Amino acid sequence: MEASSAQRAPEEAVAAVNGAGREGDVEFSLELSQDQRDIRDWVHGFAEGVVRPAAHEWDEREETPWPVIQEAAKIGLYGFEGIAQFWMDPSGLTMPIVNEELFWGDAGIGMSIMGTTLAVAAIYSAGTPDQLAEWVPQCFGTPEEPAVAAFCSSEPDAGSDVSAIRTTARFDEASDEWVLNGQKAWATNGGIAKVHVVIASVDRDLGSRGHAAFVVPPGTQGLEQGAKVKKHGLRASHTADVHLDDCRVPGACLLGGKERLDERLARAREGESSRGQAAMKTFEVSRPTVGAQAVGIARAAYEFALDYARERVQFGRPIVENQAIAFALADMRMEIDAARLLVWRAAWMGRTGKDFEAAEGSMSKLKAGEVAVWATERAIQILGGNGYTREYPVERMHRDAKIYTIFEGTSEIQRLVISRAISGARIQ
Ligand SMILES: Cc1cc2nc3c(=O)[nH]c(=O)nc-3n(C[C@H](O)[C@H](O)[C@H](O)COP(=O)(O)OP(=O)(O)OC[C@H]3O[C@@H](n4cnc5c(N)ncnc54)[C@H](O)[C@@H]3O)c2cc1C
Questions:
Q1: Secondary structure of residue 201 in the 3-state scheme
Q2: Strand 313-314 vs strand 195-201: parallel, antiparallel, or unpaired?
Q3: What's the gap in Å between 98 CA and the centre of ligand 1?
Q4: Mean pLDDT in order along the chain per 10 residues (428 residues)
Q5: Alpha carbons 188 and 265: distance in angstroms, whole number
Q6: CA torsion sign, 159 to 161 to 162 to 168?
Q7: Cβ < 6 A, ligand 1 pocket
Q8: Which of 144, 320, 359, 380 is the most exposed place for a label (fewest CB within 10 A)?
Q9: How close is the Cα of 85 to the center of ligand 1, in Å?
Q10: Torsion angle of alpha carbons 282, 284, 285, 290, nearest 10°?
């Protein structure tokens, strides 16, 4: 039925105000591009067909799933060209989209595939173009022989408090080498990586402003894997201590180069504030991506619980027909969508160079991590006894989700960063 002119007029007025119909003139859109949709569907296919079927086995084995990494490398999902393509999206959304889909498949395997990007982000944020060209491809290896990389910042006594790092880097002028000594803790891919990026102190008196990032090339003497950590979740991802014992790396392995470091140290000694702290910069770049991983886990648990609630019959009706269950699912969906929107906003801000005035990157990771823990716990509840068993995947998802309130800055540290950003006060 055709609308009368009386009905049409207000619609046209609204359309004119909104600028609707003027194609190319609408600046805000949440519509994904064809490229983004294609990449999302491609990663989803891999997550569904290859990652999910392998998830339970590698969680139980607590080993790096090399065959799955190799499959990802063969199709171009794992490799520097693929990662560069995801990063290059000018909207910033492709990287979170890829991570959400992959971690929807499984978080332990997802981290085995994406853990390398933490080291890559450090090289990218602190390295020169030559260093990027030399080291980033080596982080991934080749499709025939894939490799992984590790980012080593945390230490037994320096977790949230990055300024407490004790690993030292001393420059040996005679040989033009840096000598690294110390112990790193909880390094994803630590010891099994080809390339390690190590944060070390070149001047302890300067705290985190005296830190620098170093590449430790494959096979360097003096770098040894310490104890492998047995974990609550993310068990397909290798986590271990790394020992550095008179580990000598060429002068060129200092990311950013000596001249830039000397200038930065001089500024710090004169008391100028520095925004270039190596480890913090890396975390800033990677937080929305980490948030997207948590969104993927939460969505997987939500979808599983929704399907289960439609099928499971108690008291003669599917349990989804109880408000207690249906409302929980409604809240899960709403919180997951809210978390994703924060992730997308922060990723877009990072890619387009906006200032994070309210620590929006930290907000996205905080929200997504807490939603993932909460939503996976709700999923277990919806599955009842089955949810608590290893026959069903939601207990694994819950174990995997918990790390997202801990690594890349705990929830408390994110709140500290956000509250300082919005208040300007020295919140302790
Ligand atoms: C599976 C896994 C993988 C990891 N991968 C890596 C990696 O690849 N590279 C790497 O460098 N590190 C990695 N980490 C280390 C991780 O980043 C740290 O565990 C994390 O930063 C927290 O440090 P912490 O464990 O020493 O906790 P702590 O800093 O000791 O914190 C303990 C508790 O105190 C709280 N707290 C501390 N300070 C404050 C404060 N000022 N205000 C309020 N509360 C506070 C914390 O929020 C937390 O609840 C990994 C850890 C795990 C478990």
A1: strand
A2: unpaired
A3: 25
A4: 47 55 71 97 98 98 98 97 93 97 98 96 93 98 97 96 96 98 98 98 93 97 97 98 98 97 93 56 76 99 98 98 98 98 94 89 97 99 98 98 97 95 92
A5: 29
A6: negative
A7: 118, 151-154, 159-160, 186-188, 231, 234, 239, 403, 406-407, 410, 412-413, 416
A8: 144
A9: 31
A10: 100
Distance CA 318, CA 411 (A): 37
Out of 186, 283, 419, mutate this one to test ligand 1's pocket (max ligand atoms within 8 Å of CB): namely 186
Span from the CA of 221 to the centroid of ligand 1 (angstroms): 28
Q: What does pTM read for this prediction? A: 0.93
> Which atom of ligand 1 is the closest one to the Cα of 189?
8
Determine the pLDDT at residue 284: 61
In ligand 1, the atom with minimum distance to the C-alpha of 408 is: 17
Residue with tokens 């924060």: 342
Closest CA to 351 of 81, 90, 133: 90
Structure tokens at 313: 């019959």
Q: Could you give the residue numbers annotated as active site? A: 408
CA angle 197, 201, 204 (to 5 degrees): 165
**Tokens 């409604």 found at:** 330
**What pLDDT score does 276 carry?**
46
